[in-house]
């Protein structure tokens, strides 16, 4: 693996009240985004080494229900303004599958990264909007919605399934005029625990597609359910999986704990 490859950290900020890792939540009890908490969290992440700040206004944990595009934007708009005012050079990604949210955000803050868990499947307008606006795009593998995808785990070989999925997605992206896209294999989405571990173990197979790979394993159920713990207790095992992902070619780590991820990357580089 190239020692000089550009490994990045994406810090997670959730404008929700139900994301599975409670400390990432920045929605007040009144249903309004907590601007002070959000700006403070973003500042801390940037100081610890985050390259990208990923902001989501709808929980996508298995079993969660979507809040809708209007509610997403109601939560996002004041936060995006506040972050841009406080950290004008910060690279922002927005976790959404709504084309309307992407278009409004682009008009408000300019270029950003679209982080779409549906790879354009949940809103037919998404890929054309991203192509038209010339935005960088993250496409994730999943099946179904957050409320149904736990029952959709019947793959013969999960790695082959994901590989074929992205080969087909590449054709869709090209038709939409999207040239700069990042691959997220969707750890934890429509996959059982064994499939999640297999996918991470065989991650290097996906590098044959020639796109950067984002891995999101931070404090997920493949860790805490396996060991009978809660997300708040899974930091150590998360870093083990981050290191394994780096060994297998991950370019971006999507994390709750930026400082710890930065140290894991430094340890990996020194061993290289």
UniProtKB/TrEMBL annotation:
State the pathway, as annotated in the record: Cofactor biosynthesis; tetrahydrofolate biosynthesis; 7,8-dihydrofolate from 2-amino-4-hydroxy-6-hydroxymethyl-7,8-dihydropteridine diphosphate and 4-aminobenzoate: step 1/2
A Gene Ontology BP annotation from the UniProt entry: tetrahydrofolate biosynthetic process
- What CDD domains does UniProt report for this protein, alphabetically? DHPS
Q: Tell me where on the tree of life, at the top rank, the source sits.
A: Bacteria
Which UniProt keywords are given for this protein, alphabetically ordered? Folate biosynthesis, Magnesium, Metal-binding, Transferase
Q: Where is the Pterin-binding domain?
A: 7-266
User: Per the record, what is one GO cellular component?
Assistant: cytosol
Catalysed reactions listed for this entry: (7,8-dihydropterin-6-yl)methyl diphosphate + 4-aminobenzoate = 7,8-dihydropteroate + diphosphate
Q: What is its EC number?
A: 2.5.1.15
Q: Which cofactor does it need?
A: Mg(2+)
Recorded GO molecular functions are: dihydropteroate synthase activity; metal ion binding
Q: Name one Pfam family in it.
A: Pterin_bind
Report the top EC class in one word.
transferase
Write down the NCBIfam families for this protein, in alphabetical order. DHPS
Protein name, please? dihydropteroate synthase
As recorded in Swiss-Prot or TrEMBL, the protein's gene is named: folP
């Amino acid at each position: 693996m190239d020692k000089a490859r550009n490994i990045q950290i994406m810090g997670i900020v959730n404008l929700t009240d139900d994301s599975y890792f409670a400390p990432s939540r920045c929605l007040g009890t009144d249903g309004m985004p907590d601007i002070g908490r959000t700006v403070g969290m973003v500042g801390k992440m940037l100081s610890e080494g985050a390259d990208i700040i990923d902001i989501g206004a709808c929980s996508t944990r298995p079993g969660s229900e979507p809040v809708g595009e209007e509610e997403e934007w109601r939560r996002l708009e004041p936060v995006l303004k506040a972050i841009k005012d406080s950290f004008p050079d910060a690279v922002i990604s927005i976790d959404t599958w709504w084309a309307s949210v992407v278009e409004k955000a682009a008009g408000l803050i300019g270029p950003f990264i679209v982080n779409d868990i549906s790879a354009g499947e949940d809103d037919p307008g998404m890929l054309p909007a991203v192509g038209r606006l010339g935005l960088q795009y993250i496409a994730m593998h999943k099946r179904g919605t957050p409320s149904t995808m736990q029952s959709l785990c019947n793959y013969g070989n999960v790695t082959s399934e994901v590989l074929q999925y992205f080969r087909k997605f590449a054709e869709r992206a090209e038709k939409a005029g999207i040239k700069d896209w990042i691959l997220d294999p969707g750890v934890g989405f429509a996959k059982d625990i064994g499939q999640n571990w297999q996918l991470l173990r065989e991650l290097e197979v996906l590098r044959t597609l020639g796109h950067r790979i984002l891995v999101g394993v931070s404090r997920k159920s493949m860790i805490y359910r396996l060991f009978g713990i809660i997300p708040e207790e899974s930091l150590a095992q998360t870093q083990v999986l981050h290191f394994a992902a780096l060994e297998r070619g991950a370019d971006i780590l999507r994390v709750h704990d930026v400082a710890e991820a930065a140290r894991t990357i430094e340890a990996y580089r020194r061993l290289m």
